[in-house]
Structure prediction request, 133 residues.
Amino acid sequence: MIPRLPDPNEDVSKLKPNPLLLGVFLSDALQLELTTGGYDHPVGPNSEAKGTLNDPSSLSQTLARIFQQRKEQHVYKPGMETRTDLSEDERVEKTVWIRAYRDWSYHDVIKLIDVVKGVGANPIVLQLDDLPG
Prediction:
């Protein structure tokens, strides 16, 4: 998924942080950062190191724990609260944003996508560095 373009007429002073937002960023040194909260992309005030791309186990464990807690607490995606035709796993909020820069190697982007997909993230939103927003 690629994020929607922001509305140029939107009053950004009225935006509210989304406490359910999960974002992953890969630094130049292949360090993984998990951010929570924020607005419409994963550059939020709450960021912490979660291993490296070569050893993403800390990120995987943290995401799996967050998704399990959300399932136990019935934290659903917007509009999924009453969808009894879908399984609980399909209804739980598991969106993860990946902020990618074009100078990352294709291999690194795919590896990171595989890591978050492997713990059940869905959808995975890829934000490119030169897109607006």
About this structure: The radius of gyration is 15 Å. The mean pLDDT is 82.
